[in-house]
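Researcher: First entry.
Model:
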Amino acid sequence: MTTIRQRRVGKSTEAAEDQPSEETNVKPDGKIPPDPPGGKLWNILSITVGGIVAISLGLLTSVYVATLHENDLWFSNIKEVEREISFRTECGLYYSYYKQMIQAASIQQGLHGLVYDNKTESVRTINILERMNVYQEVFLSILYRILPIQQYLEPVYFYIYTLFGLQAVYVIALYVTSWLLSGTWLSGLLAACWYITNRVDTTRVEFTIPLRENWALPFFAVQIAAITYLLRTHLQPARERLTLMAVFIATFLFSLTWQFNQFMMLIQALALFILDCLDMIPTAKVTWLYIIQISALLLVCVLQFFNSMILGSLIISFNVSVIIARIIQKNLKKGGLPNRLGKLILHVLLVLCLTLLINKFVKKILNLESDEHIFKFLKAKFGFGATRDFDANLYLCEEAFGLLPLNTFSRLSSTLLFYIYGFVLFLLTVAAVIVAFRNLSGSNQVQFKEEMEEYTVTLKPDAAYSLVHTVLFGCLALSTMRMKYLWTSHMCVFASFGLCSAELWKLLLKCLHLYTAQRTQVLKYSIPLITLLYISFKFWPGIMDELSELREFYDPDTVELMNWIKSNTPNTAVFAGSMQLLAGVKLCTGRTLTNHPHYEDKNLRERTKQIYQIYAKRSPGDVHGILRSFGTDYVILEDSICYERRHSRGCRLRDLLDVANGHIMDGLGENEPDLKPSSYPRFCEEIKKNLPSYTMHFTRVFQNKTFHVYKLAKHK
């Protein structure tokens, strides 16, 4: 097991709104009057200062997470094999392709090795660029080879510094989004500070560097910032075209770098669909965003050699269905409230039916089954029947795919983030309900009368999108803990925007019959400043203590195993074992694997279930036959899996295998009535007794406190 141990030592206030959240003082002809010379100069100065603060905070965040990584592992002092082992599970698999490209004789040979890979899955040749989202590793390795930096920077540092640099992009994008929504860069400053002080719940980049989400989420944040700007009213055509291009580029990069892109964009498309149905954002802009999503995914599909999982994704089926339904129902937004509601229900049903029909048709044509495990998992997770499916249960039993723990909210509350987020969410939800009802009733036109302005509740398109976005991604985070990072980062943006929004304070003060323009301005700046001061005084000492705490990487058993494999096995040897460990074997030793953690392939899932019979109750002959069918030369058994205590009974890997095989589980507790005792003992326990029935198939060649390696006999 990898562990971390203690290292052995050898105020100014923003005075004006610099980016108005929505253009005002529009003339009757639709034109916006020019700013007075003094106001324009002040805006330029404020934008400059706000931009400098944004870049500074982004760079500071990058340095902060890089320092935490160094302090936790003493990365600069440990050996190369220890550095590589620190890239745990699938992180090590992704980084191995970067290493492979760096070590290739040429770029062309490196690309050929990825397109015709026969070391990731034994007795199979697969296209890594099609199966996995590793174009970022390819691009980075090519960049490292052509830049004159080899003498000054090791490949691993070039890689991790790039990821830490993307954190700067991430924070700047969050800052800009909050700034655009509120109209003041003070909001961006608060959002960035919340992101940093809630680091445990907003990012995990410092200890899972190569994880796909750490590449993708910065681009997703940039896309949200661009969409926020796009949804502003009175946007000039040239700026709108440039913004659409920025949305497309960010969407493409997000899609290219993460295999779960389609599910995130489906939620985003649902948010746009809801707002469009309620007439809260312009239909033309929503249609452009649908087209951008489809175009970006299709471009990624081409780059991934026409990956069928993209073509069969729900997001493409949904977006096409919405566009078709919109063409069929041209008069969707006309009529009174009963008429509009009836049309809206029909529209939703039409979109739903078209989505399912198109998706089923595409999957039937492509014979697509790569994502079936996700739907099995979702079906079991939300109580639509119990399942004995091994893959679905493997997800259900992982904490990362469980419900969001309650202690998350206590941590977020300690920085005041959750309290303020709830306050802003409540006010904007009330405003959204009022605006939606008014839009559906067709009564919004009467509100333009000047004498009614005092009682009118408005919600800008960008704020409406931010509201629905945070609600939908909040539901995702509550149901699946691993996805909380998509919500908590936007939570920082949403809460800071609300706290610095003149419109929100105006609405609240009017409800309390206390509204004056002066009070609104005072609250808009004083409350955020007080919050910033509170955060600074409370958390600055803790951050300094965290940065001063020095530890080092310590995993001698895994280091010993990797060194033994490199020294005592041929380069062509094939290894079987757990998905997580084998990713490290490939990275550290370059040996061929039978299975790996990238689980988005049906054949690989079936193969993994078969390989895992080493932890089930099977005969030595059966296990040997299974392993040899995949060309296995060596099998690695881990005590931490064979005698697992991390999960409770029913969720241990050996329990999942027993249930899938129809056998009763070990230990005290209930079993389903149709499960029967196995005729054989557990393989991983019995093989250590060196009984003749086992030694005729397996010979132990390595052992330490954690791992046991057996060489397979090659029977004719």
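Researcher: Second entry.
Model:
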Amino acid sequence: RQEDFEIIDKNQIPSATELKNEEKEKAAEEARWSAPILSLAKKASENLALSYGNALKSAALVGFISKPVSNDNTAKTSVRYHAMEERANLMNMMKLSIKTLIQSALSLGRTLDSDFPPLQQFFVVLEHCLKHGLKVKKTFIGQNKSFFGPLELVEKLCPEASDIATSVKNLPELKTAVGRGRAWLYLALMQKKLADYLKVLLDHKHLLSEFYEPDALMMEEEGAVIVGLLVGLNVIDANLCLKGEDLDSQVGVIDFSLYLKETQDSDSKQDGGITAVLDQKHYVEELNRHLSCTVADLQNKIDCLEKTNSKLQEELAAATDRIGSLQEEQQQLKQQNELIRERSEKSVEVTKEDTKVELDTYRQSRQGLDEMYSDVWKQLKEEKKMRLELEKELELQIGMKTEMEIAMKLLEKDTHEKQDTLVALRQQLEEVKAINLQMFHKSQNAESSLQQKTEAISSFEEKTNEMMSSMKQMEERLQHAEKARQAAEERCNKMKQELAGRLDTCRQQMSQLDSKCSTLEKELKSEKEQRQTLQKELHQEKDATSLLKTELEQMEGLKKELRKLQDEKQQLEKVCEEQEQALQEMGLHLSQSKLKMEDIKEVNKALKGHTWLKDDEATHCKQCEKEFSISRRKHHCRNCGDIFCNTCSSNELALPSYPKPVRVCDTCHTLLLQRCSSNSS
């Protein structure tokens, strides 16, 4: 199988014997050379020479010698052996190129350009590694074999690589897939993510199998080793310019002279020192990242704790102030409780005497109030019944009023009809007269009922006045009771002075009085409850009186409504008389209107030749021929039936077939006006 990468002629490749002779001649000068680089270069050169010779032999054998069937297994084993040798050679060359690139970049100490020779050789070797074992894809143009196909998968597997793919596709200078693949590698190296992207590809080998054969370098373990070596390139800073470079036509030839030159390092120990320094640098950078993250987190936590601490201190100060104020309030409340107890003991003695007097007066007043309440309740029931009857009569009158309004509307419509409708109008007038007579009788009945209600209202007002007078008498009695209570208090004071000498005798009787006090307290509680119930009843009676007042106001409103209805009745009677006169005049004018109707019929016969156009049939205005749209709407002419825009049909006229003025186009408007003027003349 022919290899995918170009190799220099055999004469240019240094053989093993030549290398040995050069080593013997320059043994003194080559003391500073690095031993690992020489060994790797020797192995790479020998393996490449052997693979190239074997490839030539296999090509010669395939071209001229016919292979027997029995030698299939030997051919397969030889192919696998060649693939293994190629993978080993490419991996060794990759190690050499990465090592020389890192050493030369560190010795320079600056960002690398695209003209840097070790960097160019690194991309050549990497390209050979990616081309190894690629499958040939047949197209209409011919066979296509490029390594940009697997690199396009990275965009799907890793969304971070989408920027690289878009920038590569947007470059107008790149016309071939090889050029796009080289540009992709340049951009990935500048981002320091070349190893990460290739690792993502190796993790999805089932996708790579579409592009590579099973024995390819990217499908075997050597691919993972190369990805591990590429991690060391993250130390290098590269600034590669893609514009102006011809990436499509570059020839990828490996230059072995770079790997056989004298290096700047004195010993192999220094190589190990550089790698150790690089490892330490990576370790320190990672430590710095972790420490910066932890420091930021700790600082945020400290800020939060300081805020919470300040809040807690403020809450503590507020709590201590509250505790002090509550303690002071507690002491004040204790003092107030003692004073209240003393006052309550004194007030209990006074209230005992007061309640006795109030009970007597209350019992007397309650009997009179009960009698008044029963009378008022009966009157209320009677007035409610009367009010319901009045409401029913009002509803009937309102219904009659609505019927009258409907009849009036029908009369207005029927005046525009012909002689046949005159008979119906007269019948309706007779019905209206009968209804008016009924309304007149009902209004008389309503006036009589109103007089009865006014009499009932006057009697009710007299009763309310009596209630008010009784309330005033109750208030006078309460004032007398208060005066008696004050006289009793004065007597009690005198009695206390007299009882000061009789304290010895009273102490013996205290035991008896305590038992009596307990019974009196119970009676007091019951009397207080009765007093509360009586107060509630008084409030209820006041509410009832307020309701009665509102009902009186409603009755006055009903009177006003009755007056309004009477006024409306008179107006309706006047309207009926006017309509009768109008009907008589209509009878005179009907003969004249017949003649006009015949003229109008002739006009309609002339105009009825026009058909009523549908909305779908018209797309343009018939007069101005402008196209209809959302702003320019369609309008029918009620005379000719054609469709016009708003400007061409803004006129309105009263047609014989329509009682009200309707929309007419400009032409019909002028024509109808001319005919009307000729008829009037």
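Model: Note on the second entry: The longest strand covers residues 651-654.
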